[in-house]
Specification:
349 residues; alpha+beta; Alpha-Beta Plaits; 7 strands
Length: 349
């Protein structure tokens, strides 16, 4: 995603505003401040991903309702308006940059001095008959230049090492920010980002995309009967089985509480339902023991809802349909998998 410029020429901004208003009128988007920000950003070309997403929605005749408009704003515009973003840059990065600038300034100054000295040597060559003093002076200048170059190289090597450490720290911090600490699965923030990308890919390539949502049956009973530590143990078990049952290209995440979710790019509803059933059976066959006492815990079962992405629908719409299928699984006695199509058939009947 490209950066939004701090300042825009007044005439250019006016042109963009007119274009944004025109787009909003054409697609019947309510003229709210948030919606205007989205379409102004679209007209400006401030985000290739935003432009691609809106173009796909338009091509598929998707209505820009309140859910779609809000999702576009939160995903693509609000991050630029967050005043705290600049504060997230680690202080050590500023220190490394300042150090590198100092090294470069020294190198430039030394190089200028060396060129002046060599110029003097060149002038003396024309005026002095005996070249030995000139050669000695030249060798001295070259030796000094070599020493300065070695010192500069060492400084930059240290700077590179510092940057490597900062990069690794930031990578670890990003990993932690995208991971649920209890289950080790992706968290909701990571899920939402992955799902947005998967939706765009599905719409562009015309490939299927499905999700499954898991709810642990009678989870409150585990907590009440055995304590929260056992409840955590149950969550970790289900999370582990979920992660082991999906492909590397899939995305398993903790959605919230005892609900887990997996996004399966390229998978049809039937394939996703098969994966869900495999997970359900594996969990039903697993046996847990209470670590403190060795007591065997009653078997764990799950209810699963499965849904397939519909062209140009919002992430919220897809998850809502999957959640309805999950709710139907719980109403049907739990420990089963229900497809969204079954819910649709029941509603139609």
């Amino acid at each position: 995603m490209s950066s939004a410029p701090d300042e825009i020429d007044f005439d250019y901004a006016t042109t963009l505003a007119d274009r944004a208003n025109g787009f909003m009128a054409q697609h019947r988007v309510p003229p709210t401040p948030e919606n205007f920000a989205v379409w102004f950003f679209y007209a400006m070309g401030g985000s290739l991903t935003l432009k691609k997403t809106i173009d796909i929605l338009i091509a598929n005749k998707r209505k820009f309702d309140s859910l779609v408009n809000r999702d576009l704003y939160v995903t693509y515009v609000r991050p630029y308006s967050d005043p705290g973003l600049s504060d997230d840059i680690p202080d050590q990065v500023h220190a490394v940059i300042a150090s590198a600038q100092e090294f470069l300034a020294t190198a430039i100054s030394d190089n200028r001095s060396q060129m002046e000295s060599l110029g003097e040597v060149s002038s003396e060559c024309q005026a002095v008959a005996d070249p030995r003093p000139i050669i000695e002076k030249l060798l001295k200048e070259l030796s000094s230049a070599t020493s300065r170059s070695t010192a500069l190289e060492a400084n930059f090597l240290r700077t590179t090492q510092d940057l490597d450490q900062i990069r690794d720290s930031l990578k670890l911090a990003e990993q932690h920010s995208n991971t649920d600490p209890l289950t080790g699965l992706a968290n909701r923030r990571s899920l939402e980002a992955f799902l947005r990308t998967a939706q765009i890919t599905s719409m562009e390539a015309g490939t299927p995309l499905s999700i499954l949502m898991i709810d642990i049956d009678y989870f409150k009973t585990f907590n009440d009967s055995y304590g929260h530590q056992v409840g955590d143990q149950v969550l970790r078990l289900v999370g582990r089985v979920l992660q082991e049952s999906v492909r590397d290209c899939d995305h398993a995440a903790r959605y919230g509480g005892e609900e887990l979710i997996a996004v399966l790019p390229g998978a049809t509803l039937d394939v996703c339902a098969e994966v869900a059933e495999r997970i359900r059976r594996r969990i039903g066959e697993a046996r847990l023991t209470r670590r403190a006492t060795g007591e065997e815990i009653s078997s764990v079962t799950i209810s699963v809802g499965v849904a397939q992405f519909r062209m140009a629908e919002s992430a919220e719409g897809l998850i809502e349909r999957c959640d309805r299928a999950l709710y139907q699984a719980k109403r049907s006695g739990r420990n089963c998998t229900v497809r969204e199509s079954s819910v649709d058939e029941e509603i139609a009947a």
